[in-house]
Amino acid sequence: MSYAVKEMFLTLQGEGVNAGRRAVFVRFAGCNLWSGREQDRATAVCRFCDTDFVGVDGAGGGRFADADALADAAQGFWGAGTEDRFAVLTGGEPMLQVDDALVDALHARGFRIAMESNGTLPAHPRIDWLCISPKAGSSVVQRAGDELKLVWPQPGTDLAALDTWDFAHRLIQPLDDGDAEANRAACVELIMAQPRWRLSLQTHKLLGLR
Question: Is 25 labeled as catalytic in the residue annotation?
Fold first, then answer.
């Protein structure tokens, strides 16, 4: 199988439980909740995405002929040393492309694999750290994992239903739009009322990282 990757780069994980960790980000092209094109945003299931995942023209991106080629590229971004290798598979929606061959190839090169998914497709069972970020109006089938990250506010979200899902960590992340200040306040209000949740900030944006 070949893989379409928008971009790949070495950075610090900016969000969630692993925030601050050195990571190779592999951003796959394509998503099943939005085409990525502005003319389709108003009719998409996910209307607030702030990521460009269209095409394969980003830095480090391209079409990789097989899993070894992609894993070799990730290894090249990490550089020397095999300890604590960490790759984050994201998108778009990575589960449109992630398969056995890729997971095996990254593990063979010493990477611990994290994945950020919208949960509408079953996650690969050998992902080492699974973060699900559900979108209101979508049908989430992956209701267990390591990290549940909810962008907030999202009208139509059933918080009571989310409480029944099996995740070790539950994070609320402020929606990054023109109402950012009000969104941060809404997140704090929710956590104060429901202390099972914790705050996640996009620290990579605060630091000026990708």
Answer: yes
Q: Is 187 a catalytic residue?
A: no
pLDDT per residue as tens digits for the range 156-191: 999 999 999 999 999 999 999 999 999 999 999 999
Judge: domain 3-207, CATH 3.20.20.70. Answer: yes
Domain residue limits, the chain: 3-207
Q: Which of 12-16, 99-103, 203-207 has the lowest mean pLDDT?
A: 203-207
Inter-CA distances, 102 with 5, 71, 89, Å: 13, 7, 11
31 among known catalytic residues: yes
Q: For residue 122, which phi and psi values (nearest 5 degrees)? A: -60, 135
Is 116 a known active-site residue? yes
Catalytic residue among 31, 53, 111, 187: 31
